[in-house]
Amino acid sequence: MNTQNNILALHSTVAKHSTLAMDIDIAKAVGFDALEINSAKLEAYLQAGYSESELKHLLQDVHVTGIGYLRDIERQGAERDDLLKEAERLFQLANLAGAKGVQVLTGPINVQAVIDFQHQGKSIHYSGLLGFDEVEQYALTARNLALLADLAQQYDLLLYLEALSWTPLNSLEHQRQLIDRTERSNVKMVIDYWHCFTSGVKPQDIAAMNKDVIYGVHVCDSLPFAGGIPNEDVLRDVPTGSGVLNLAEWTAAVKATGYDGWWSCELFCKKQQQQNSYQVAKELQALLSRLVGG
What we know:
By secondary structure, the protein is an alpha/beta fold. About 45% of the residues lie in helices and about 15% in strands. It contains 13 helices and 8 strands. The protein has helices at about 20-30, 40-45, 50-60, 80-95, 110-120, 135-155, 170-180, 195-200, 205, 230-235, 245-255, 270-275, 275-294, and strands at about 5-10, 35-40, 65-70, 100-105, 160, 185-190, 215-220, 260-265. An 8-stranded parallel β-barrel has the order 1-2-3-4-5-6-7-8, surrounded by 6 helices. Helix 1 crosses helix 13 (about 275-294) and helix 4 packs across helix 6. The protein starts with 6 loop residues before the first strand and ends with a helix. The model has no long low-confidence stretch (mean pLDDT about 95).
């Protein structure tokens, strides 16, 4: 078990179009301590014909902080059956990868559903609990989260919640409430600078948090946001460190809680995802080292 503090993790989005084997090589080559893996890369490895034991062997010397992600955790009815099936599969993959945590997301993950709902009160896309009052949104989401946490516990895993900033329960307070209502010790949250910024959370709100509820941190940036429904595809298309966020201020806020766990460099910059991933990762590792070590 890796017990070092302030672990720097390479996120799968940095080399979005590369394979799992390449991600591992990039992380080792540029000095990352760990990987945060998108489950699609694990599935692609297995679907290519490799066995589960070969996957375990590939990752045996790699510290995997977590894998993502389970979307739309508030799903109801037949969609909740799908949610639980997807969860079981992710938990199996997390076990194979040697990960301790699995990322879970509030929904709807498709921002178009939120835009449609604002304009028409309905959408052809999955709409989750849009249109429900907040009391029901809390109750139904927390009930699902408790179910998922109990299932995760069977695999000795914890869930790390990320509230997408265009979804109804999107703030730090919403997430704290969900975690409290879930009443499960294996549910924590990830602090994502972009989702915090676009949901109206300020660095001082983070600084006032209990560090024990934070499982990980996504260090990322944003283009200017004037309000309304945030569009991730547009606003996150910027190199980390070149946007409007004061990354040092946000990082200092997290550190003010006493948190010293893992930090991951999620990346949505399309140009950088087409560049030499070793160079991009090297620059991100240096940036994270300065921010977290400073």
